[in-house]
Amino acid sequence: MKKISRQILKILKNTVKKTLSSGLSAIALAVFAIVLVVYLNKDNKLEWNTNKGINPTPAQIKSIEAIGEWEFLVINDEELIDTVRRSIFGDSELVRIYYGTLRLGINLHKTKPRWLVAKGEKVTATLPAIELLDENFIDEARTKSFFESGKWTAADREALYQRAYANMRERCVSPENIETARKNAELQFRNLLQSMGYKEAEIIFEGEKDR
Q1: Is 130 contained in some domain?
Q2: DSSP β-ladder status, 122-127 and 200-205
Q3: Same structural domain, 9 and 36
Q4: What is residue 162's three-state secondary structure?
Q5: I need a surface site. Which of 25, 45, 94, 166 has the fewest CB within 10 A?
Q6: pLDDT per residue over 2-60, tens digit each?
Q7: H helices within 102-174, ranges in order?
Q8: In this structure, is residue 53 part of a structural domain?
């Protein structure tokens, strides 16, 4: 097409040179040239296509899953546990202080297939439910006896440990703390997804109603 156009324009140029003596002829030829160029290019189109959809790549999904355990609320707690043993020879008492650090968050290794789905500029993330990330939260190295009288066995000390453990777990893994961790997770995860280019991010937790 370009070769044909150059040949036609060359002919027109030569024709114009021969007809310069007539101003009217030159104008007519110029108009003819414009009409011809427009006709030859009538099928040529210039289009812009905008793809507003952003699809997460497998690499991006894997990089998020690789975060693994992501904590959103850390609670430092201490528990004072005591026990008394009475006998005809006198009472024995054992008082111990336990320290624990409980971390609430999500384990991204537990995500299910298609947990991250994009549609246009919106992405929906279905995350595992908030959980206690580490069940061994009592720091035994910091555990110490506050008061001790009489003789106590390893089994007695283990019984106190189990009481402290149960009390800490019940008090710290509460609905209120789980809700706080959930809100923190929703905020931080939404910021992460929006930094990837999504304008709208919906966060859903497994086992919970869509809020």
Answers
A1: yes
A2: parallel
A3: yes
A4: helix
A5: 45
A6: 444 555 555 545 554 554 444 445 455 554 455 444 445 555 544 444 345 567 788 88
A7: 154-172
A8: no
